[in-house]
Amino acid sequence: MNFAERTTLESKLTHDFDNSCLGVISYFDPVHNITQNTYYPTIQSAVNAANASDVIECAAWTYNERVTIDKSLTLQGVDSANCVLNGTGLSGNGNGIAINNGITNVTIEIKNTELYRSKR
To answer: What is the phi/psi pair of residue 103, to 5°?
Structure first.
């Protein structure tokens, strides 16, 4: 981990004392499957674990990944300014969101603003 990455990580940590002074680190997984009430560290891991028709909500965060959707679901961001999917730094082809052929009823939206709906 380089200095910039450490600085970014440090800015996300809270330093709260616990009763046993064990140095517990509190963190959150930014992707929430609302339907199943489960949390994931990445959008793709949430999509992989989702059932058809689940609603997946992404917190305000920068997600450095590519996402492939292979089932009908809703993917929503909570904030259009701070919920960013950026896979451009990854090796290989493409970035952003890909929906597999033949998959229908996919909705991608940000805070009640629909961006894409697959009706194939």
So the answer is: -85, 130
Max Cα distance, the chain (Å): 56
Alpha-carbon gap, residue 48 to 2, rounded angstroms: 30
DSSP-derived letter for residue 120 is -
> What distance in Å separates the CA atoms of residue 5 and residue 109, rounded to the nearest whole number?
30
Interval 57-110: pLDDT, tens = 999 888 889 899 999 999 999 888 888 888 766 777 767 888 999 999 999 998
**CA terminus-to-terminus distance, the chain:** 44
What's the whole-model pTM score?
0.72
> How many whole angstroms separate alpha carbon 79 and alpha carbon 92?
28
Q: What does the H/E/C string look like for 15-79?
A: CCCCCCCCCCCCCCCCEEECCCCEEECCHHHHHHHCCCCCEEEECCEEECCEEEECCCCEEEECC
